[in-house]
Structures are given as C-alpha cells and as structure tokens.
C-alpha cells in the first residue's frame, strides 16, 4: 500500500519538509502496521531537519512520537491485534507519515480514557519528565528545584510533578505570559530571564543555599549559570540544547561544590520494554488523577509540517504541536 508522508531529502529550513507518497510494506515477524491518527512535533525534529543532529539518514521520514491504530500484524506477533489503540516514541524515526510498520515492542497500549492527541503530544515529554524527576535525580520533599523553559512542554510537566512531590520549584521564562503560566503549573517563583540575572535571583530566593537540582534543556546560554545555581552536592541535568551545544569545559569545575552532571537520553534510560510501559502507565495515571495537566495543543495537517516547525521555533509559542494525517 501507499500513504502520504513527509520526506526530508536535505537538511535546512522548514521548507525542506515535503509531502510525498511512500510505500508501506506488510508487517514482518514481530511487527505491526499502524495507521497514525496523531503525530507529535518535538524540538528533536527541528534539530534533525536543521542539520544540528545527523541521526536520520537522508532521504528519510522524520518524527519520533505518534499515536494510532493497529491495522495489521506480522507472523509471531502476540502483544497486539488489529483495532488496538497504541502510542510510541522511537529513535527509528518515521512518524511523519499516515501509516508505517514498527516493532511491537516499541508500542504502548492506550487505555480508553486517554486520547490519541494526549498520547501523541505528551508521551515523549512525559516519559522524559518522569525519568528526570524520579531516576536521574529523585526529587524529594523540600528540595529546591530550578527548571529552565518552565512554560515549555517538558518544563511545565517537570514543574507540576516536582511541586506534587513537595519541592519548591523555581522556573525561568521569557515573557510575563509564560511566567504566569509557570506559576499556575507548579512554580513557586518565576524568573524573567531576559530581564533578570537568573543566577542572582536564584541566590536571593534560596538565601544563598542554591538548588539541589537544575533541569536545563536550553544548553549553551544557561549551562554555566545553572552550574552556579547548584547547592553543594547538587545535580545539573542537561537534556537539551535549544540555544546551542554546550562548549567543552573542565570537569574540575564540578569539584568546588562536589556537583554532578548528567546528559540523559530517555530512549536509553527507558530502553527496557517492561520498564518503559510501566513508566507510561504511571505517566498516564498522573494525567488521569490531575497531578499533571496537559498543555494546550496547536494542530496542523501533515502537509503543513513546515508551518508546524516554524511555530515550534517561535519564541512566542506555548503548548504542544500536533500533526494530523
């Protein structure tokens, strides 16, 4: 069969994302065929399209997160049947398509109460937030936590979940609107990083004690400031580089306060199938019981993937972006 997909043939501007008709094979052993109903758009996709990441062989179909319905199963497939609703994240790419073949071990079953939209826009972000908060650094009651881009997709989930765990959350944001959003989603304090020195403000807020953990997805522009904000034995969890890659630095800079540093890959952190599905169940339960609130969703047709990328790169954007085949 054939289905429409977004094909990237050369890295560059959003216009490189072009709709083409591609062949979808029959599923092989251990594989299923999926009809996508909702496709998440992430900063990772932007990095791949721009050429910052060289992880997708070109020409290729980008996208690492989607939800849909199983339409066919291959020989030996035991975990899913046609008609099952599923979601997934993958380093194999290929999500910007109306249909695809995928290994059944990558799939997460969706309960009736969870919409395809929620799963496609919050699975990757939510699993990332869980791993950062519970495994990379296990946030405890009364911890002081710094979250950059607190109104962003992962940032807002980090703030809500850390606050629910009893932490004092300090968030940075780029506008009054985003600061207000952060304060409504778990932050005790919001710092306007364009107007204030966030290192000085964190020092004031914590009375010079610093934070136990800083979650930094911004990278180059904030990394060393985040390091300066840490308390003794504090941890810096870098998980993105929206402002650019962090330059090389001397590891001895961690020595003064006995700090630690991590650069997590959620795909490696949750590489075990059973563990990943268990974490996904906890994530979806957190949305169900109100611990987490989903961000607003902005929808684009699959053919308008370039427009979605422009929106993703806009500093005024808030909420999640979704492609609908």
Automatic annotation (TrEMBL):
NADP recorded as keyword: yes
Cleavable signal peptide: none
Cited Pfam families: ADH_N, ADH_zinc_N
Domain spans labelled Enoyl reductase (ER): 12-323
Domain of life: Bacteria
GO molecular function: mRNA 3'-UTR AU-rich region binding; NADPH binding; quinone reductase (NADPH) activity
Classification via InterPro entries: ADH-like_C (IPR013149), ADH-like_N (IPR013154), ER (IPR020843), GroES-like_sf (IPR011032), NAD(P)-bd_dom_sf (IPR036291), QOR-like (IPR047618)
Entry GO CC: cytosol
Keyword Kinase: no
SMART domains the record matches: PKS_ER
Keywords: NADP, Oxidoreductase
Name used for this protein in its record: Quinone oxidoreductase
Species the sequence originates in: Candidimonas nitroreducens
